[in-house]
What does this fold into?
Amino acid sequence: MDLAGLQRMKREGTKIVGVVAWDTPMAQIAERAGADLVSAGDSVGVNLWGQKEGEITLEEMLVVCKAVRRGVRQALFSCDLPPAFVSVESAQRLVDAGADIVKVEAGPAAVEKLSGKARVFAEFHGPGSTDDLVKTARQLHEAGAALLDFRHSGPEAGAAVARAVPIPVLGGLGGGPWLDGRLRMAHAAIGYGAAHLERGTETYANVAAISLQALRSYAEDVRAGRQLKGQRPA
It folds into this structure.
């Protein structure tokens, strides 16, 4: 999949499936499931590594970018540029690491600079008036953005923005069917993470519960002196 393919999907009214992955196996699974876009998100810092918001570095994102790139063969591959490292040089490093498009939360001026070196997936978010959000989307497109991630869009503003620009508009956090597609963390979709053991969330599975039971069974085998399942004596 390339940008032209995503633009064609928008014109034809076919929804774009975007998946955020943080490692090679999950990227491979996402692509096999039919993802059109696989994104290496800087959300890995908070959601997988236990960092604070904004703590992730460019060097760490380069490791994630290369890992996810190894798992992507057909989908368009996006990589996040951490907010503290927005520069042309940093964007070029992500491209050199394999990113087809660089995702960034930045204004039109920064997007224009970056678009001289890389394709740009620009992120912005509501709430706000529909007119103001449409204006922002148009400014980002005119500055050179090839894709938009409209977070917290809402059905009114989201639909208006999607109609107002010729480039695909996806929805990350708080997106909806009124946009050209969705972008969601794979780990959120499958229920992977300790939080899924304590409360119900909108997932399609509960890998956390399955993992807990599997590790309990493993611990029981070790403590009972049994050979591990699937292993033969050497």
Observations:
- DSSP finds eleven helices and eight strands in the chain.
- The first strand starts at residue 16 and ends at 21.
- The mean pLDDT is 93.
- The first helix runs from residue 3 to 12.
